[in-house]
Amino acid sequence: MLSTAVAARHLRLAGARAASKLQPRAPLLSHTAVAFATPTVRNAFRSLPRATFASVASADKKAFTADQYPYLKRDQSFKKLTDGDLDYFKSVVGLSGVSQDEEDLEVFNIDWMQKYRGQSKLVLKPSTTEQVSKILKYCNDNKLAVVPQGGNTGLVGGGVPVFDEIIISTANMSSVRSFDPVSGALVCDAGCILEVLDNYLAEQGYIMPLDLGAKGSCHIGGNVATNAGGLRLLRYGSLHGTVLGLEVVMPDGTILDNLSTLRKDNTGYDLKQLFIGSEGTLGIITGVSILAPKRSKAVNVALLGVSSFDQVQAAFKRSKDELSEILSAFEFFDRASIDLVKQHLVAGKNDPLESPHPFYVLIETSGSNKDHDDEKLNSYLEGLLTDDIVQDGVVAQDTTQFKNLWAIREGIPEACSKTGSVYKYDLSIPVPVFYQMVEDMRARLEKEGVLGEDKNVRSVVGFGHIGDGNLHLNIAAKSYSDEVANIIEPYVFEWTAKHAGSISSEHGLGLFKAPHVHYSKSPSMLALMRRIKDMLDPNGIMNPYKYLPTE
Amino acid sequence: MLSTAVAARHLRLAGARAASKLQPRAPLLSHTAVAFATPTVRNAFRSLPRATFASVASADKKAFTADQYPYLKRDQSFKKLTDGDLDYFKSVVGLSGVSQDEEDLEVFNIDWMQKYRGQSKLVLKPSTTEQVSKILKYCNDNKLAVVPQGGNTGLVGGGVPVFDEIIISTANMSSVRSFDPVSGALVCDAGCILEVLDNYLAEQGYIMPLDLGAKGSCHIGGNVATNAGGLRLLRYGSLHGTVLGLEVVMPDGTILDNLSTLRKDNTGYDLKQLFIGSEGTLGIITGVSILAPKRSKAVNVALLGVSSFDQVQAAFKRSKDELSEILSAFEFFDRASIDLVKQHLVAGKNDPLESPHPFYVLIETSGSNKDHDDEKLNSYLEGLLTDDIVQDGVVAQDTTQFKNLWAIREGIPEACSKTGSVYKYDLSIPVPVFYQMVEDMRARLEKEGVLGEDKNVRSVVGFGHIGDGNLHLNIAAKSYSDEVANIIEPYVFEWTAKHAGSISSEHGLGLFKAPHVHYSKSPSMLALMRRIKDMLDPNGIMNPYKYLPTE
Fold it and tell me: Which ranges carry the FAD-binding PCMH-type domain (chains A, B) (predicted)?
């Protein structure tokens, strides 16, 4: 629908005819406010207290991961924990750094989605790198398996134990070590919470180069260990480019002291890269040096309604030309996504656009000059309307509206989970066939008779970061069933491999995708990965049962 | 000097008082042309034909590297080349892919600076990845040492042999394999010349994410193998972020097929990172997938005269705030640099500013809207003049002037070499002490009585990429002498280490810096590097005598 009316509840983009009447450079979209009545639920899940997980788990005891996945067997070469071991650990980290309490342990044994449940009997919370070094050396010498854990916000079961691995939490390592306001180099402990760092930098006029829904809980060390992507990657690039240096404790206790704050350093193999995205299988990241960009003075957010995925692509192509250096997000979701948000979350109480559309695009710009950015965005949006590439849209007029528009996009995962059980896939797919994956999956589930209002699978939704080619495919079901799982897998992986995609775009491998990595990596690549793992962790104590397929 | 006059020969920046008279948004700096009469010499050295090196070398036989550095001894575990080996190589690459002609070989045995001279008897020019695989497998099985070579434009002797290593050139692998005009992913052979790729992308509205003086000769495979930095790193980041995938042949002939075109892929260790900057010591890069950014529609270049390095820093800090997302280069050079350019190159025939200044800053902006960029740049420059941070400046008014301003900056290395011999250092140094290195070195050389018009050392110049903290310190002498070398080294490395810098910012280690890497990397880092080298290249055939210190 191409509307020229300015609605009372929200601002409509002026259509082609109306736009032509406007004076050049007049701020086309700033007359009327977008009046969302609802409070923001941006990153709602992170406000869930840790205790919630534990109490839920106690009330409705989740099955152990080891029982859910019977192919997993405890590696009997790993030693079982003894009182002697405990005494040693207490001597290293003190009593306050050791937890054996069963209820406390649940918080660390169960992931936040409550999909995985480990059986660890011990959490250690070192507060210095030297303590981590002593712990790992002891574990390695004694073949005690460990799982490093940050904020426990992972989606693939990589941060929780499977059997009785000792959990080493970075929770007690949360200091900023230094910040250089000229270069933007931030050095901090691995246990710093992403949002805390971002707030710290905001005061200095800088911003963290990454942002994600879990930022209120996740640790920067975990972000680096999982090579987290998120919402700013389109603009600031991946952690492989923005991380300047790392401090890492190797399984034998060796401390790799590479906390460089230099932007350029060509003195030898770039070892830190091995640990970025290694998910705790090669060592524990204890310190991070990262290059923070300047915080943009002007930020705009627009939400657009689009009638086809071809038009979503057309809008994306144009944004690269016309928004170019100020484009900071190009996010996408389908109608099924917003339907779930409307159904389950306050963020979806009021539909942001007057009528429903098959597709939605959320665009964010960030720049140093508000007038320039407004002019670029307005010109871009007018062009889209004139050429009938988008049919409707709103532009946030203040911070609240900005947050409300983001809340819809960021609320999708939580809304999906309200259905009961979610099959979550995180795929890199070439943009031209990006949405075909969702359509093919819907058709398949329908054909098999499991998708519908009275069926187990209620909705198949697609959303994600078009700018990065990253599709989040969520299949919301009433409950988990092997029947549904077997319809989805390995079909979803085969489909992705056929289109030269990646079966894990940003979530990582963890426990979930370890058996499937061959869909995205060749035997020669996997063989070299295994050699690296065996060289750096010969006893295999680091985060076992995960990441690489078992031999 | 703060001038408000518009000079005939070049445009002067309007000073504070004049600026205040101007209308808002009037294009302050576009009245008069900058009239450089000289042809551009940008990247002049790359127009030197390969034959020049050979004929010079023949006329004035350069000493062999092995004789210059007597500590280097041929590893006797390496086999010497036999007729049988030659027959095998001919069967793999054909007669045209094999060169044994002595004069031909000089071109590959001697680096472009004519600082290093190897003694190889054989150059192989495979044209497919499979041929590279067969060659390496054979060399590994037979313990024949090899040195991979791209465009032979390196500055640290990393790409030329020391003894009789077989040279494997990527010259015959120069095809673009694919380009995706939606994502900007370019896939090409390792032997593609950087400038050829950039011209290819220009036709599609894209740009290579790196640019450097040697772009007319250097190969993209060599760029990746040395983690080349250059002129666009400030804007587009390092190759660790922009390289999407690599195809690499390992010493045992295994082909690592990881030519992904995906922006995000978290399926296992990011193996390609190991090879970025490994300088041919772990394998040969045969194919590169790289993310090309959109080419900017508007580009501006300004050259500023500044009276102190403190003011250079102040101008840099402001540029991050005010030019922000459109800043694409912030280069710096001192008066000694431009004096050499004036003395030796046509690019320096006319001083770009009316009077000499102690420091010069070259600023480039790249954006999608010329009016916006002009406004940002003008406002930034006016502020610098008003606050007396810069004293004078010019802004390029057309492509020729754009090239002429860059020609001064890019001509500095060539101008230095005209003195006779250059001691070149490429350092990462924290910006606050960036120029102190140059001053301390000058004072030291003066104190030792070797610097002056009638002395061996004629000039100590500092230039480089302020935006990246990368100083190029060039010490121009009449001829090489051990006396001077011993005054400079290890002082320069110790100074750098003391200030937590890097002894190789972007040039790499090669032969030159292998013995000095401990100034920038700890024993634990070096030990792990050695383990990785030994694992991937157990026979040590890949580019021996270089990169890592000998044990």
Answer: 116-295
Interface residue of A183, A270, A325 to substitute, partner B, most B CBs within 10 Å: A325
pLDDT-derived band at B12 (thresholds 50, 70, 90) equals very low
User: Nearest C-alpha of chain A: how many angstroms from B12?
Assistant: 26
List chain A domain ranges: 16-37+297-498, 46-169, 176-291
> Does A375 contact B376 at a Cβ distance shorter than 8 Å?
no
Closest of A409, A273, A436, A279 to residue A352, by C-alpha: A409
Distance (Å) from the C-alpha of residue B250 to the closest C-alpha of chain A? Answer: 10
Please tell me which of the candidates A273, A313, A528 has its beta carbon nearest to residue B273.
A273
DSSP single-letter state for residue B189: E
**Site from B325, B368, B434, B506 to mutate, A interface, most A CB atoms within 10 angstroms:** B325
State the Cα–Cα distance between residues B207 and B299, nearest whole angstrom: 13
Compute the distance between CA of residue B387 and CA of residue B359 in angstroms, rounded to an integer. 17
Q: Is A176-291 CATH 3.90.1680.10?
A: no
The ipTM estimated for the assembled molecules is 0.90
Cβ contact A507–B266 (<8 Å)? yes
Interface contact flag, A504 B265, Cβ < 8 Å: yes
Q: Domain B16-40+297-498 falls in which CATH fold?
A: Alpha-Beta Plaits (3.30.70)
One CATH from 3.40.50.720, 3.40.1740.10, 3.30.70.2190, 3.50.50.60 for A16-37+297-498: 3.30.70.2190
H/E run at residue B314: helix B309-322
Q: In chain A, what percentage of residues exceed pLDDT 70?
A: 89
Distance from C-alpha of A202 to C-alpha of A207, rounded to nearest angstrom: 6
Q: Hey, are the CB atoms on B509 and A266 less than 8 Å from each other?
A: yes
Tell me the residue type at B399. T
Q: Which residue has the tokens 């009276």?
A: B307
Separation between Cα atoms, residue A318 and residue B294, nearest integer Å: 11
Nearest residue to A275 (alpha-carbon basis) of A311, A221, A231, A215: A221
Contact flag B469-A270 (C-beta cutoff 8 Å): no
For A46-169, CATH number out of 3.40.50.300, 3.20.20.150, 3.30.70.20, 3.30.43.10 equals 3.30.43.10
Instruction: Name chain A contacts of B533, Cβ cutoff 8 Å.
Output: 269
What does the mean pLDDT of chain A come to? 89
